[in-house]
Amino acid sequence: MDWLRSHGEVLAVEVEGTGAYGAEIARFLTANEVTVVEVDRPDRKARRDNGKSDPIDAYGAVTAVLSGRAGGTPEARNGIVEAIRALRVVRKSAVKVRTQTINQIRTLIVTAPSTVRDKLRGLSARELADTLARSRPTGELDDPTCAVKTALRRHARRYQQLDEEIRDADKEIGPLVTQAAPRLVALPGVGPETAGRLLTSAGDNPDRLRSEAPFAHLCGAAPVPASSGRTNRHRLNRSGDRAADNALHTIVLVRMKYDQRTQE
Fold first, then answer.
1. Tens digit of each residue's pLDDT (9 = 90 or more) over 110-143
2. Residue 186: CA count within 13 A, CB half-sphere
3. What is the DSSP string of 104-161?
4. Helices 192-202, 80-111: inter-axial angle, 10-degree rounding
5. Which helix (H) or strand (E) holds 234?
6. Which residue among 29, 36, 80, 148 is least enclosed by CB atoms within 10 Å?
7. Percent residues over pLDDT 70 in the chain
8. CB 60 within 8 Å of CB 50
9. Measured between alpha carbons, how far is 85 from 92 in angstroms, rounded to an integer?
């Protein structure tokens, strides 16, 4: 701050990547009542015309802000939504590894000897994990049947550990989501997971999204004009926060199945 102010009055600071490497400096500047503007990287045409270096990028960011082309308010990361985001990172990774684990179990079963495979037919993922975790393989590990049984038992115990980790995360995340957005969670088809995803996309300062339109655009749910001449049409928006878009899609699927008003 001393260095910035030694150059004169600080109007604003442009930061690229306020959601990643620039998160802490954005928090620091905001705490010191400095306006922080989020800027994107220069487009390809500007990079071809002007070259690429840190000073060139800095001048380009200043020009974008002063001309009004860049004016994005960065997402705040200093409240309950940031806490939800951190806990969701752990849950998401556990869900991913649990899925990989059950897929590996099923792959091992496909190539296992029939004496192993026949006993496990028709079981759900949780029944399969419980059955294999209780098993007691006997024999020598140089025997393929014994080795497969041992591998399946270890995979099943890993699946159970991850399942418990996900349940613990749900117990931690659920109350926080309800506290942050009780009206959102009360909507039909919206659970703690999808609500947490939407909250994370909006951030701790949702007032930066002035209406439905910018939030829809943020989630990639706003159609993009693709008209030309007499043709008037729109196309799907392939950009935006794809995880938030997936959360909206999940909510729609649940409501189509269980909510009478949505079905009508």
1. 888 888 888 888 889 999 999 999 988 888 888 8
2. 5
3. HHHHHHHHS-HHHHGGGTT--HHHHHHHHHH----S-TTSHHHHHHHHHHHHHHHHHH
4. 130
5. strand 234-235
6. 80
7. 98
8. yes
9. 10
Q: Which two tokens stand for residue 200?
A: 């994370």
What span, in angstroms and rounded, lies between the C-alpha atoms of 21 and 171?
30
Closest by alpha carbon to 24, among 86, 78, 90? 78
Q: Which residues of 104-130 are buried (b: 16+ CB within 10 A; e: fewer)?
A: ebeebbeebeeebeeebeeeebeebbe
| Beta bridge mates, 249 | none
In single-letter form, the type of residue at position 170 comes to: D
Residues in CB range of 80: below 8 A, 6 or more apart: 176, 179, 180, 204
Lowest mean pLDDT among 31-45, 112-126, 144-158, 244-258: 31-45
CA nearest neighbour of 151 among 120, 117, 109: 109
Beta-bridge partners for 14: 37
Report residue 13: phi and psi, to 5°.
-125, 125
Confidence band, pLDDT 50/70/90 cuts, at residue 259: very high
Q: Check pLDDT > 70 for residue 163.
A: yes
pTM value is: 0.77
pLDDT at position 71 is 67
